[in-house]
Write a structure and sequence with these properties.
heterotrimer, A alpha/beta (about 350), B alpha+beta (about 250), C mainly alpha (about 675), B: Beta-Lactamase, 6 helices, about 65% helix, C: about 675 residues, Beta-Lactamase, 4-stranded antiparallel sheet, 21 helices, transmembrane (chain B), coiled coil (chain B), membrane (chain B), transmembrane helix (chain B), HAMP domain-containing protein (chain B)
Chain lengths: ~350, ~250, ~675
């Protein structure tokens, strides 16, 4: 008995000794270190498609509003993508602190697709932020949706998620069936309709499709819009959704007027159909906020020296909800209070 | 001091302790409740401004560009007399819109600094308080959830401090009255309750002092018990006195 | 218990009657004040609530105005109900909002729910476009909202009542003892002499109450007779040679009966009751910070060179316990030198200063330093109190004295943790320490008025503890067993779980210090209610090892409760249950451990018996010092709930081992007898 208990003592003392040792030698948590801010001037090179428009201006004023000292070097390719290599060469020569590329074409043209190695043709060693790129992953600009994983590229997601669009429609009114009118010749429209159908099924919403009659040369003619609208009205959808289509954007007034004519409210996730046409409801990212969110990324790189590869890609969380009140009143589709509260009203 | 008074003092001491705690506790609750009511009244207004401002921010407008905000702030300050000031600041602490007169010790810059700390949840309201005013600072978030500025509302605490003072005084009055009443009650009740003991001892005292003849003895109180035994003692005293007298006489004769 | 000179039942009835009386008055006063306060709160707050409801309505109104301005007809407004309901979610005092048209007809409402008739409707906000009123918003404010909100402090008010109840017991028993029992006892001693015809002593304590006046009257008689006798004696001495023998015999007899004499021991000693009040206040002051001290330490944390985070935040408690453990035996010698009253007062100085400076402490180093000073005070004061009690009680009433000491400690623990929690919740940690310092001052004051030190310290320092005594204890396998797997685990659980991990655990889940205090209070309540009955039961049954083993097992199981229920609703209640069970377990095993210790010490026997017990008491404190350190370091790895579970597991394992060894030994013993 005695030996057992003595062993117990030894074991306990050993245990406690080790424990105390750990406690005493364990490192103390380091204090949060604060870096002093350097008041240096940054050089930011902006490559645009047709000059510094609203998005670019918003980007610039964001940085200035945030108190950064920035000199902007602005270059426009004047809608001529052939001029991109010129700009690449100039950037390599000027060595700015940051390169900003406007739109998918310039971004791909200047920093190259994901996986680009060191190359004469692309800028690979200067941090770059892409601006106003609708689908960076789809365009092959980045590797992952949540961060670029490219050593010198960062940017932001500016798309309005389909879920958000469907939710807005549902909070505006009861939606069981949504209608969509499109031309089968436009591949992006077809893809958008497929995506819409997948998303809608998760909400228990049925998608009613109406294709535009193809014209004699393939693409539909503007005259085909009104009959298609009447045809879909007979299937009695609760609301119409606009999918991306150059044809419908070109004919936005006719298209939206036909919807009102057919007594159908029209939802859009682009700004144009509601500003220039008679769409009733729109949820879109405002051009200024697209510029600002890119500015936010640029700020982190310039001010804090953030690594573009691992900088989290932010998404726009608030979009502008715009209600075209004359159309809503004409269709007697009055917005509910909860929607009114967060919506901008157009009169 | 009488026995009942001595004991009553301690009883009242306990009651006073409990009353003090109770009054303190309820008063603290009242203060926090009152503050909460006032604060939420003003928070409703500040959040209303926030909704309007954030609608504009989602549109990509900067706070500075929202001309309608100034009017809204002025209207609110006019209709609600106890609002000292209602302002909108940007992230640098620049006053973009101002209605009313901002208190000197508004604490806006330190508040802004606290709101900008990374560990703080982006959407929490900050409450500032000093001896003269309360302030609420509500962060404004832009389209990508980043803080773009702050609505700050300061309101006068004079009215609410007067209210608190009034209620506290009332409570103190209640407490004192209750204490006084229980003081009287404790004295009377312990006096009544201990009457057996005290009367017993008083009787014993009179007996010892020879002011009273032998009294009948009943009951089980300590005085009674002593009294029973005191009869024996009394006898002994008598005997002793007799002996002393005898000795005195004997000595006197000498 | 010596001479049973007082009608004990009568005195007890007297105390209980006074306690009932106090409680009745207390309840009446508290409920009266609570009721009046509530009335006043409602009167003041109701208009404010209505003003606020008006503001909410105006915000809703402005949205409606916007809709109307956009061209939506009032009757066609959609979604008023969810819109208004969402806003009202943040305003529980508003029962309902209705939108009424110009004829007063309700168009929309925030809910279907009907509003009680006594609710007041407020209809000040008009809606419309460009000055044309289209309708009005009507708001109903809940009539009993203020009362409902005050229910939130129900538990705390109950705690105050409960604390007042225990306080009443504590204080009134002392008061009755001080003012009635003790004087009567002293009288009674004299009566015993008087009954036999001896009047050589005066009754001490000629106070101005009824008993004191009787004593004075009695003394006057005695003094008169004594003076007469003194005169006689003088006269007698002059003629002694010629005195007749019968006169000499008479004078002899009278001298034996009347010659003044120093007081007998029983009448001179102070009463135990005298020390009880200052002692209680002292413990109360030290216990006030019980419910939040670890949290306070954590909040003040900053890195100290060479110390890990866990060790640093456990140090204010662990170092305190360590110093108390090593200083207590040393303080014993001081009691002999200074006398207990002075030592008590001396002990209150570091206690008060320590608490005051803790209140002003702004960093962890200061906290640790002042806690250490407090530890010095604690060691001095408790030793002084124990010394005083030992002297006042004498050998015969030693057990009663210890019971009074323990009762003061446990009752103060109950009152201190709960009240301290409530205060800390509202005043903050620093100010609560200030309150504690003030209570210490009060304790010193009570000490000065109550405790009359009668000079000589008859007891001296008792047996001086030698290093060799530790050797005696450590080398003895029976002591080893008791210390290692019974006493240390018990102490470790007390400080590690109850006093360190509980506040941290409940704080991490988001409970207030008030709730933490209430939870910890449960342990003390159980100890008060179960302590004496359990100890008596153990004495009656006599199987101390069984009780000690069962206590360890129960304590271990009880401590494993929180980890298995982590995240459940009403988590604090479960922790409180665990506390209560640990309380039962400790009531089972601590007195039994003490009894076993005495048995084992008797085997040691001789002059080192007492020293062995003291050495043992020092050694078992290893557990209490390690408790917080172990809990803190385990918590860094596993979180507090699991830490407590692990401590429980450890105690359970010790309990199993202890029971097994005890059973084996019992069988071995039995077979040896056979």
């Amino acid at each position: 008995m005695q030996r057992r208990i003595t062993t117990g003592w030894v074991a306990v003392s050993l245990l406690l000794g080790v424990l105390l040792g750990i406690l005493i030698t364990a490192p103390a948590t380091p204090l949060h270190a604060q870096q002093p801010e350097a008041a240096e001037r940054h050089h930011v090179y902006i490559a645009t498609f047709r000059g510094c428009e609203e998005v670019c201006e918003a980007f610039k004023s964001y940085l200035l509003d945030r108190g950064l000292a920035v000199d902007f070097i602005e270059r426009s390719i004047e809608r001529d993508t052939a001029r991109i290599p010129e700009l690449v060469a100039e950037v390599k020569e000027l060595q700015p602190d940051l390169l900003v590329t406007w739109g998918t074409a310039i971004s791909l043209g200047m920093v190259g697709p994901a996986g680009t190695a060191d190359s004469e043709a692309y800028v690979t060693d200067i941090p770059a932020v892409y601006l106003y790129v609708a689908d960076p992953l789809g365009a092959g600009l980045v590797n992952r949706p949540d961060m670029s994983e490219r050593p010198n590229l960062a940017g932001a997601n500016i798309q309005v998620p389909l879920e958000a669009q469907l939710r807005v429609m549902q909070s505006y009114q009861e939606v069981d069936r949504i209608g969509v009118v499109y031309g089968a010749d436009e591949l992006n429209s077809v893809a958008a309709v497929t995506a819409l159908r997948v998303a809608a099924s998760r909400f228990g919403i049925e998608v009613i499709e109406q294709q535009l009659d193809p014209g004699p040369e393939g693409p539909p003619l503007p005259e085909s819009i009104a009959p298609a609208m009447q045809a879909i009205a007979e299937k009695d959808p609760d609301i119409l959704v606009t999918v991306s289509s150059s044809f419908l954007i070109q004919n936005v007034e006719a298209y939206t007027a036909a919807a009102v004519e057919a007594g159908l409210p029209l939802f859009t996730s682009a700004e144009l159909p509601i500003r220039q046409g008679d769409a009733m409801l729109a949820l879109f990212a405002s051009l200024s906020s697209i510029g600002q969110v890119a500015g936010y990324q640029a700020e982190q790189i310039l001010r804090e020296g953030a690594d573009p590869a691992t900088l989290p890609t932010p998404s726009l969380r608030r979009f502008t909800l715009l209600i075209n009140m004359p159309v809503a009143l004409a269709l007697e589709r009055y917005p509910p209070m909860l929607v009114l509260q967060i919506a901008e009203l157009m009169d | 001091m009488r026995l009942s008074v001595k004991i009553a003092v301690y009883m009242v001491g306990i009651i006073a302790f409990a009353l003090l705690l109770l009054t303190y506790l309820t008063n603290a609750k009242f203060r926090s409740l009152q503050e909460e009511v006032e604060q939420s009244r003003f928070l409703v207004l500040a959040l209303d401004v926030k909704t309007t401002a954030e609608r504009g921010l989602a549109l990509g407008l900067t706070l500075e560009q929202m001309d309608n905000l100034g009017g809204i702030l002025h209207r609110l300050v006019e209709t609600h007399g106890d609002i000292l000031s209602l302002v909108i600041l940007d992230q640098q602490g620049e006053l973009l819109h101002l209605a009313g007169a901002l208190p000197d010790d508004s604490g806006l810059s330190s508040g802004l600094e606290r709101l900008q700390r990374p560990e703080r949840g982006g959407d929490d309201t900050l409450v500032l308080s000093n001896s003269r005013s309360f302030g609420l600072m509500v962060p404004l978030l832009n389209a990508f959830g980043q803080q773009a500025g702050v609505v700050a509302l300061h309101y006068d605490r004079a009215a609410s401090s007067a209210l608190v003072r009034q209620v506290t005084l009332e409570q103190l009055r209640f407490g004192l009255a209750a204490l006084l009443l229980s003081c009287v009650a404790a004295l009377l009740l312990t006096g009544w309750y201990l009457r057996g003991v005290t009367q017993g001892f008083a009787r014993l005292t009179r007996l010892v002092e020879g002011r009273e003849r032998q009294a009948p003895v009943v009951g089980g109180l300590p005085a009674d018990d002593l009294e029973r035994r005191f009869q024996v003692v009394h006898q002994q005293v008598g005997e002793l006195e007799a002996k002393v007298e005898k000795a005195e006489n004997a000595l006197a004769r000498r | 218990m010596g001479q049973k000179v007082i009608e004990e039942r009568g005195l007890k009835r007297l105390s209980y009657g006074l306690i009932v009386l106090t409680l009745a008055l207390l309840t009446a006063a508290l409920s009266g004040v609570a009721y009046l306060s509530l009335q006043s709160f409602e009167r003041v707050l109701q208009p404010r609530l209505e003003a606020k409801a008006g503001v909410v309505a105006s915000v809703i109104g402005s949205e409606i105005d916007r809709a109307l301005a956009a061209g939506i007809p009032l009757e066609e407004l959609r979604g008023f109900q969810p819109f208004a309901a969402a806003i009202l979610e943040d305003h529980p005092e508003i029962l309902k909002i209705e939108l009424r048209d110009s004829s007063g007809q309700t168009l929309f409402a925030s809910s279907e729910q009907s509003v009680p008739a006594e609710a007041s409707w407020n209809e000040t906000v008009a809606v419309g476009t460009a000055g044309a009123e289209a309708g009005r918003l009507a708001v109903a404010v809940a009539p009993g909202y203020v009362t409902d909100r005050l229910r939130e402090i129900q538990a705390e008010i109950l705690v105050i009542l409960l604390v007042a109840l225990f306080l009443t017991f504590e204080v009134l028993l002392v008061v009755v003892a001080m003012f009635v029992t003790e004087p009567v006892r002293r009288l009674s001693h004299l009566m015993a002499d008087g009954e036999r015809g001896f009047f050589r002593h005066l009754v001490p304590g000629e106070t101005r109450d009824e008993i004191g006046r009787f004593a004075a009257a009695f003394n006057r008689v005695v003094r008169r007779e004594q003076e007469r006798f003194a005169a006689l004696e003088e006269a007698f001495s002059r003629l002694r040679p010629t005195a007749p023998p019968e006169l000499s015999a008479l004078m002899q007899d009278l001298g034996e009966r009347l010659r003044p004499e120093a007081r007998p021991a029983a009448a001179t000693e102070g009463s135990i009751a005298d020390v009880r009040m200052p002692l209680f206040l002292f413990f109360f002051a030290t216990e006030l910070s019980r419910s939040f001290l670890p949290i306070f330490a954590r909040d003040l944390y900053e890195p100290l060179p060479g110390l890990s985070y866990e060790l640093t935040i456990a140090l204010p408690i662990a170092l305190y316990l360590f110093l108390v453990a090593i200083l207590t035996p040393m303080a014993g010698a001081l009691a002999g030198r200074f006398g207990s009253r002075l030592l008590f007062l001396l002990g209150l100085v570091p206690t008060g200063v320590g608490l005051l400076m803790t209140a002003l402490a702004n960093d962890i180093a200061m906290l640790i330093l002042w806690r250490a000073v407090n530890a010095v005070g604690f060691a001095l004061t408790t030793i002084a109190a124990l010394d005083y009690i030992a002297r006042a009680a004498g050998r015969s009433r030693r057990a009663e004295g210890m019971a009074i000491y323990t009762a003061a400690f446990v009752t103060a623990g109950l009152c201190g943790t709960s009240i301290g929690g409530i205060l800390a919740d509202r005043l903050g940690y620093h100010a609560t320490f200030l309150v504690a310092a003030a209570v210490t001052l009060l304790s010193a004051f009570m000490l000065v008025i109550n405790l009359r030190d009668r000079g000589t310290s008859a007891m001296g320092g008792g047996v001086r503890l030698r290093l060799a005594d530790f050797g005696t204890v450590l080398a003895n396998p029976r002591f080893q067993l008791l210390i290692l797997i019974a006493a240390i685990p018990t102490q470790l659980l007390t400080t590690g779980y109850l006093f360190y991990a509980t506040p941290m655990l409940l704080d991490s889940v988001g409970y207030s210090t008030s709730v933490i205090g209430q939870t910890m209070m449960v342990y003390f309540v159980v100890m008060i209610l179960m302590g004496v009955p359990m100890a008596r039961l153990a004495d009656r049954v006599g199987r101390y090892r069984l009780f000690a083993g069962a206590g360890l097992l129960l304590a271990g199981l009880a401590a494993m409760l929180p980890s298995s229920l982590e995240g459940s609703a009403h988590f604090a209640l479960w922790v409180a249950l665990s506390m209560g069970l640990v309380g039962v377990a400790h009531a089972l095993c601590i007195p039994s451990q003490g009894a076993i210790l005495l048995q084992e010490a008797d085997r040691v026997g001789g002059d080192r018996r007492t020293a062995a017990i003291s050495a043992y008491r020092v050694l078992e404190r290893i557990g209490s010092v390690l408790g917080p350190i172990l809990a803190a370091s385990l918590a860094a790895l596993y979180g507090y709930a699991w830490t407590i579970g692990l401590l429980g597991l450890y105690v359970l394992a010790c309990g199993l081992l202890f029971t097994a060894i005890s059973l084996l030994r019992a069988r071995g013993g039995a077979s040896a007898v056979n």
